[in-house]
Amino acid sequence: MNILISNTSDSPLYQQIKEQIKDSILREELKEGDPLPSIRSFANDLKVSVLTIRRVYEELEKEGFVTSQVGIGTFVSAGNAELLRDSRRRLVEEKMQDMIDTARSLGITREELNAMMEILYEEE
User: Fold this and answer.
1) CA 118 to CA 121: how far, in whole Å?
2) Per-residue pLDDT tens for 52-100?
3) Cα separation values, 57 from 6, 60, 98, 117, 120, Å
4) Where are the domains of the chain?
5) Cys-Cys with 36: which of 73, 74, 85, 100 at CB 3.0–4.6 Å?
6) What is the C-alpha to C-alpha distance for residues 122 and 28, in angstroms, rounded to an integer?
7) Which range (32-41, 45-54, 79-88, 115-124) has the least confidence?
8) DSSP, res 109
9) pLDDT confidence bin for 7, thresholds 50/70/90
């Protein structure tokens, strides 16, 4: 898992790490049942406090993305398919809203935007 931390970002470290792990889960780079690194080794790899990683794991667990088993480790949560589907939809909706905002600011009509999206979607 490749986590990039920016010291110039407005987001706190734990938020940057948490969002990147969530993105990896949503993109299925991390699959159900996959183990996450131990808190200590992950903190050492990222050169952050173990408290930061513990907070990341706790928040991911509260949100249903991972489960922790004392003495065993932290794993990508099994059985949260609906949560993942909803999170994926939300991610797409956010990107679409950005696209709509940009189109409106440039004077692009809904019809033009729909036509562009149809063409781009078919190219995939």
Assistant:
1) 5
2) 999 999 999 998 899 999 889 999 986 666 677 787 788 899 999 999 9
3) 19, 5, 29, 37, 37
4) 13-76, 81-123
5) 74
6) 23
7) 79-88
8) -
9) confident
CA distance 74 to 37: 8
pLDDT class of 1 with cuts at 50, 70, 90: confident
DSSP letters of 44-72? HHHT--HHHHHHHHHHHHHTTSEEEETTT
In 3D space, the residue among 86, 91, 83 whose CA is nearest the CA of residue 60 turns out to be: 83
Give the closest residue to 64 by CA, choosing from 96, 22, 20, 115: 22
Residues in the chain: 124
Distance CA 76, CA 91 (A): 19
- What is the rounded CA–CA span in Å between residue 17 and residue 11? 10
- Domain 13-76 sits in CATH at 1.10.10.10
Q: Locate tokens 């999170």: which residue?
A: 87
